[in-house]
Each structure stands twice: as C-alpha cells, then as structure tokens.
Amino acid sequence: MKSLLCIAVPIATLASSPAAARDYYFFNKPGVDRQVYLEDRLACDALAGGVARISPDTTAMNQQIWQNRNLTMGQSAAAAGIAGLLVGLMAGSENRRLQWQVERICLADKGYRRFEMDKAEWKTIEKTEDMAERIDKWFALASGATPQGKEMYE
Amino acid sequence: MTGMMRALLAAGLLTLAPPAGAKIKSADQMKTEKAYLLVQIEPVEFQMMGNNRLVTGVIFAPYDPVTKQTRENLLARRDPVAKDGKRRLYLIEVDPGTWVIAGTGGSDSQMGSADTSFSLGSYHFDVHAGELVDLGVFVPQREESDNPDTRMNTGNVLGMALFGASVEPVPNRLTVRPRGTDDLVIPAWLAVRPLVQPAFVYGGTFGNNLGGLVNRIDGKAGRGRTAGAAAYLSKPGQPAVEVPSSGSAMEPASAPASVEPPATPSSLP
C-alpha cells in the first residue's frame, strides 16, 4: 500500500482518470476495500495505458501520397505533413475512446458497475487540490452500499 | 475519417504481432529442436444484413506464469496448411516453453470486430521440443454488449458511412473445443505424426501489449472463474474437461495430458 501511494504518476492518473470521459460517472462495488479499490484502479489504468503506446501505421497512406504523379514533390511533402497531423489528432481521440472502453471492461471484470453522476459534483471532486482527499471522495462513491444515479452500460 | 483511423490503428496493432514463420509443406521441414502448434481457427460471425463471417487471426506469445510477462507475439493468420471457406488450419513453429493465447488480431474488417488482448485471463500451456501439439479448434466470437452504440444495425452502419459516426467496437472472446469429425482434415504428411494433447491452464494475465481492447478469453462468462484450473482437450470428437487446480493458482498443472476425463465432463467455455 505504501509503495502504491509513493508513486505519484499512477496516483495522479488514478485520481484524474474520469476527467477525460465524455460522460460523467463513477464506478461502484459496494463495500470494496480501499486497498483493493486502489489496486484495481491501478491495474485497469495500466491496461488502458497500453492503448496509448500504439501509433497508427501510416506507411500505406504515405506511399499513396508520394506515389501520386499528380503532385509535385513539394505538394506531396505538404500533403503528407497535413495528413500526418490529422491522423495524429484523430488517433489521439480514438486512443482516448479505447482507453475509456478498456477501463470500463477491466473494472466490470473486477465487479464494478458504472453510474451516472452530476457534472458539477464530478467537477467539485476533480478540483479538490489535496490528492489524498480527492481519492477519498472517489473511494466513498466506489464503496457506497447504495449508489445514486442511473446505472450505465459497461 | 474514423473508419480510416480504425484501420490505421489496426495496422499499427498488427505490426506488433509478426506472422508465424514460412509455411511448412512437408514433414522434413519440421525441426526436432522446435515445437509445433496445430490449430484450427473459425471465422468470427456477426449479423448485419445477413450472416457475415470474418477470417480472424489468433495471437500467441511466450509467457512467464510467475512474472506474468509475455514476450514477442506470433500471429496465426496467413499460410494455413488446410482451409475450407473461411475456416483455417495452421501449423505454427515455436520455441519450446510456456505459451499463452494472447488475443485475436488480423480481422478482415474493422466493422466493429475488434482485435483483442486476453489480458484479463487466458489459457497458457507448455510445449516441448519435437512435439506436435493439437490445440483443437478456436472459435472467436464478438462479446455481447448492452451498449447500443455497438450494435451492427443498419442505422449505426449508415451513420458511420454517411456522417462519420462510429460503431463502437466490442472485444472478442474465444471458445476452445476439441477437433471433431466435421472439422478440417489434417494433411496426410502431418497426420502420421503423433499428436500431443495440451493441458491448458486458465487465468494467465498479462499487459495490454496489443494496444487494443481487452477481455478474458472466455469473456464475461469467465468473470470470477478460478485461476489455475486445467482444461484438457480430450480425444477427437469428445468434449473438453476441466480438472481442479493441483497447486498454486498460477502454476501450470503437473498432471499428464493423457488424463482421462471424468464421467460427466463439462465443456470448455
């Protein structure tokens, strides 16, 4: 437990992971032990983090651009640059969606259900500056016996 | 754009899983210091304006059950030794050791059929030099989901085509069953060699090294299932059986693969 709390980056990820979500929600498993909760979240964050390490393979796209005889070398370079930028931006968005999905699947596998929460409440928790206090608030929601809010699909 | 992005991401994923080595066409190409995996892979089926069948690859990786680490993946997807329609029979040369069924990859389509890492729990098994290991028949399937965005209905697909919307991918799961009389025929030059039945050990977990979605190999049905239970593929045409773990939850079972099934066997999920 001590070692877990000493790792700043994973804890920061743990505390802020719902921040990137389109929807506002929390995970709940009534009566879950605090240490188990932390370990579950870290394990699932690690799996979700695996998504970010994959970069799209743009080889075929670049081949099409550079082999296009209607483009000059300068135009090809510009086209490849713009396309690469767009692909990078879109890949970031797709990666985030995959990461959220991996997190949901992983936590559901560990017995957590997902519930909608109020956006303002969510922001209030996320704006809690003290990291331990913020984790306490998420843990209170995670371990509550009667979660409030509409249950969401996995 | 989203569809193209999915395709590009999928291509990126596949770069992590190199295909298995060159096709083996005769017994004299098989090396005594290597082991060989024989596996039939069925296509993924899904309903969308009729029944669709997608050829799908399966990824294997060397696995350490103690550290729960995998090493470089191997994709069974090309150069089958036999095929019938979209069913494929692969012969894969591997180094002796412990291997895990790491996931699915190399689908023909990105239409909501996601390549999947079985990071949450999979089967691992031991292979020894000179063995020809019959892994049986793998049946990959789309996981069920209550998420309406994952449904392969006409509205979602048209939305994807016309407005750039996306059908949210669902992970695959994979059922393992013994080879039966209706399955692909093993080539004669291979059939003369003795087949070794593997002892699958359930519950191997590992990182999301494929970079896509994750699942248990047996999907939602496997949640809460005890790790370490060994499953033996019995003789061709007979169902697989499970036996209780003989030791540590993550240790491979030490019982011989020739163990006889109990009187009332249960199927592998």
- Strands of the largest sheet of chain A, in order across it? 1-2-3
Q: Summarize the amount of helix of chain B as a percent range.
A: 10-25%
Tally of distinct domains of chain B: 1
Topology, number of strands of chain A: 3
Tally of individual domains of chain A: 1
Query: What is the number of helices of chain B?
Result: 3
Q: Give the SSE order of chain B as H and E letters.
A: HEEEEEEEEEEEHEHEEEE
In sequence order, what are the helices and strands of chain A, one letter per element?
A: HHEHHHEHHE
Determine Rg of chain A (CA atoms, Å).
20 Å
Q: How would you describe this structure to a colleague?
A:
The complex is a heterodimer of chains A (154) and B (269). Chain A contains seven helices and three strands, in the order H-H-E-H-H-H-E-H-H-E. Chain A is mainly α and 154 residues long. Chain A has one domain. In chain A, strands 1-2-3 form a three-stranded antiparallel beta sheet. In chain A, helix 3 runs antiparallel to helix 5 and helix 4 runs antiparallel to helix 5. The longest helix of chain A has 37 residues. Chain A is elongated and about 65 Å long. The N terminus of chain A is likely disordered. By secondary structure, chain B is mainly beta. Chain B has one domain. Helix content of chain B is 10%, strand content 35%. Chain B has three helices and 16 strands. In chain B, the strands form three sheets. In chain B, strands 4, 5, 6, 9, 10, 13, 14, 15 and 16 form a nine-stranded mixed beta sheet that branches. Chain B is globular, with a radius of gyration of 18 Å. Chain B starts with a helix and ends in a 26-residue tail after the last strand. The C terminus of chain B is likely disordered. Chains A and B meet through helix 3, helix 4 and helix 5 of A and helix 1, strand 10 and strand 14 of B.
